[in-house]
């Protein structure tokens, strides 16, 4: 059905639409290094790494609004880039009975080889404000926070499986 609608666009509409889509960075396809962007949000950290010649080969972000903005702002070649929503689907950390070796193999199958790992994982379980709020609500914080605090360990699984040369973490 989408193909039928696509063909109903006029040449002017198609030209206009193409100007609105993200374009490859200036150094495409001659990249200096490859990186992955975990807990990417709208992609702020990606901009800096692309500016110095990097190629993003994998992105993970679960927030649907952030994903829409990210995809609107960045060129993601479907042949060279993979997009994932829940990183736990890649690391298998939410599944019981998965060995470390099985998880590592699954990670290697789904996350391409890369030089730099970028991870902007949530700070709420660790920040002063986040911990205060969670304490007031009687909720777990830090690594005991199962929804956000354990994502650090998913990053560790990826590092162990892929061994990037450089890490850049931010909260």
TrEMBL record:
Q: Does the keyword Transferase apply?
A: yes
Write down the EC number.
Answer: 2.1.1.37
What this protein catalyses is:
a 2'-deoxycytidine in DNA + S-adenosyl-L-methionine = a 5-methyl-2'-deoxycytidine in DNA + S-adenosyl-L-homocysteine + H(+)
Q: Name one Pfam family in it.
A: DNA_methylase
Family stated for the protein in its record: Belongs to the class I-like SAM-binding methyltransferase superfamily. C5-methyltransferase family.
The UniProt entry, under PANTHER family, shows: CYTOSINE-SPECIFIC METHYLTRANSFERASE, DNA (CYTOSINE-5)-METHYLTRANSFERASE 1
Q: What is this protein called?
A: DNA (cytosine-5-)-methyltransferase
């Amino acid at each position: 059905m989408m193909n039928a609608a696509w063909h109903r666009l006029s040449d002017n509409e198609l030209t206009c639409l193409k100007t609105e889509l993200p374009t490859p960075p200036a150094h495409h396809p001659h990249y200096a290094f490859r990186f992955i962007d975990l807990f990417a949000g709208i992609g702020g950290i990606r901009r800096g790494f692309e500016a110095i010649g990097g190629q993003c080969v994998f992105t993970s972000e679960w927030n649907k609004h952030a994903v829409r903005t990210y995809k609107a702002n960045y060129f993601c070649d479907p042949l060279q880039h993979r997009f994932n929503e829940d990183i736990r689907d890649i690391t298998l950390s939410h599944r019981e009975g998965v060995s470390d070796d099985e998880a590592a193999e699954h990670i290697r199958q789904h996350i391409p080889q890369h030089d730099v790992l970028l991870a902007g994982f949530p700070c709420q379980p660790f920040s002063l404000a986040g911990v205060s709020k969670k304490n007031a609500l009687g909720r777990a914080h830090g690594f005991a926070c199962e929804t956000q605090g354990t994502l650090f360990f998913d990053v560790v699984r990826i590092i162990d499986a892929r061994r990037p040369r450089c890490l850049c973490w931010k909260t």
